[in-house]
Write a structure and sequence with these properties.
This protein has eight helices and no strands. It is mainly α and 183 residues long.
């Protein structure tokens, strides 16, 4: 492919010609050019590599150091100490809430759960949290219906809730509507 621009040699020849004329003018004006000699750079330092650690024999790898056994023993003792508390809290809280309350990691709680066969309550999802907030609003409304003396059927009709949702909210929040109006 042929370039439409000047080649690098042609472009630099103009610049070098300008420099040559400037040097001639400098020398004609009584200037002198000093030769400073060669620039010497320091040699690169020798490369120093860290020697690899000697490999341990296979027998030595299978035997954990004494410190590790002590540390593992302390961890096991702490897990045994926490297990009863975790078992009680697992009935009402999820694993993240228990970790925050006891100040331990979720990983440790997971290990405790596996060792002592403790199942944790699942954490609510975003949709479940939204449903719980919505149910709380409905519960307040149903509580107001209960205070003004509506029957179960009247509260269900006025709230415009599905009967399953109505029953769930009443059960969750302990709302007991009368079946009939007392005369």
């Amino acid at each position: 492919m042929i370039s439409h621009e000047l080649s690098a040699v042609e472009a630099n020849s103009r610049t070098s010609a300008m420099l040559a004329t400037q040097i001639e003018q400098f020398l004609a004006g009584g200037g002198r050019i000093q030769d400073l000699g060669e620039v010497q750079t320091a040699p690169m330092p020798l490369r120093r590599e860290v020697e690899p650690a000697p490999r341990a024999s296979k027998k030595a790898r299978n035997i954990p150091p004494k410190e590790y056994l002590d540390r593992e023993g302390r961890r096991e003792a702490k897990r045994k100490e926490l297990a009863p508390q975790v078992r009680v809290l697992a009935e009402t809280l999820n694993i993240s809430q228990i970790a925050a309350r006891l100040g331990v990691s979720r990983r440790m709680l997971d290990t405790i759960g596996r060792e002592f066969k403790i199942t944790f309550k699942p954490a609510p999802t975003g949709a479940q949290l939204a449903a719980m907030a919505r149910d709380k609003v409905f519960a307040e409304r149903l509580g107001a219906f209960l205070k003004i003396g509506l029957t179960r059927r009247q509260a269900l009709v006025r709230s415009e809730l599905d009967y399953r949702v109505f029953n769930r909210i009443c059960k969750t929040y302990g709302l007991q509507f009368p079946e009939k109006l007392e005369s």
